[in-house]
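Re: the 546-residue chain
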Amino acid sequence: MKILIVIPARGGSKRIPRKNVRMMNGRPLILYSIDNALRLKDHYDTDVCVSTDDEELGSIAKTFGIEVIWRDEKLSADNVTLDPVIYDAMRKMENRYSVNYDIVVTMQATSPTLRPNTIRKALGEFIDSDYDTMISCVNRPHLSWTRSGGKIVKNYEKRLNSQELPCNYLETGAFLITRRGCVTEDSRIGENITVYETDPKEAIDIDSEEDWISAESILKRKRILLRCVGKPELGMGHIYRCLSIAYKLIGHDLLFVTDEDSVMGKAKLQESYLEYETISDDSDYERILKNYMPDIVVNDVLDTSEELIKLERKYTKRIVNFEDMGPGAWLADAVINALYENQPNKPYNVYEGSDYYFIRDEFLTESPKEFSAECRNIMIMFGGADPSDLTGKLYEICQVLHPKMPNVEFHFLTGFAYAHKDKIKPIPPANIFVHNDAKRVSSYMKKADMCITSQGRTIFELASMGVPAIVLAQNEREAEHVFAGMGNGFINLGIGERTDTLTIIKTIMWLADMPHVRAEMRDLQLSKKFEKGQKRVIKLILGEDR
């Protein structure tokens, strides 16, 4: 299957003078189409040419090994359509190389946001089809009006929501693929036509200054791959953090990657409506890396290996890891360890401590409650998964505490992936209340006078809300999170599974009856400022810290 790609590019342009050679995000505009065309050579038997009347455009094309078809003056006029231009280029290329093409592809120089994978997939679908012509389009269904008989009249029969309207395909100008027999001086379109729907971000056709600004903004977007996991043994914190980061990177292209067995993580990503893929091994992951070609990879999977980072380095320039104390950390560009401080033998590229905690937006908009000397509301919260089931342990303890603390309400917040929700039921007579998968945790913290929690990311959120807390670690690794100490407003009882029930009961009762201690703990917590942590982390991810 012999394919000809023609890139038509005149030197003259009235609305944007010399637009095809002007610098778009640091490169001549025409180079984006040339790059896309050249990448097709890796997959198909293609010849590429630029049809132009301009010496500078011809020089750029030749620099990249592209054939130049010089247009006659009559084909360079403003009112000339592309049909005779493409026909002229095709005939000259066939004569030059004594070849008969099977498919002719028109690729506009004015579509810089078109991605290589899009045109490759479109061409593949066309080759495997019986269509004569494929046109790149964007689907924009709208209620529209037109002028007829001197009046404004509607183009629809019934007013519907946009998602219920019929397809309304608009040509993007990015590419037109057609059979050789359909190309004449008057047309490139056969009788059997299909469209290839493109993402609106790839549909910009540079025809105005506004188009130019929009395209340049899109091209400045970075492709960011966030690899994270959500499993019972690891909890959901990695997923939640990456989601919070993603919401702050809205101006960039994002792809989540999680393990096939991250069932909880997949469910949360599905719920977020963000794009994600799953992998079962490194070959799966390499396939995604090769196709996506990320500008940045963010790893939130705990310790990484050298092999993993070397694999990622083949396809990306920047790698940023979270909570990584593995050998791969030494090969990353930045490692953000908000929870781990003063680790021995750490790499030079580690950014540690509470200054680098990425707090969720809700804790920046919610304000702490007024301090209450009387403790009436105790919150129990052990994260999204609570793998050690410390919730169950405290559930039994609170039933014992109720007769001793009859005026205290115990509010259990169970997470999205907590496995024992069916066992944790409200007991109103015992002032025990249960809130499953709360969407705005800060609103519950604002009511709490104290909290019992695990030693993960929640400790920072509690500190931001000024809620004194008793901490029980889920495991040995979590126990290394040094922020959860008395110096920051926390009473740390060590690993929860090893802490006896009597110690927990006595500590809760003591702290509830010691308002001056809770007040001091609260002051220590509120002395910490987390507002700038978000900005620091985003700058590190984007490489803007240098």
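Residues 243 and 386 are 19 Å apart (CA to CA).
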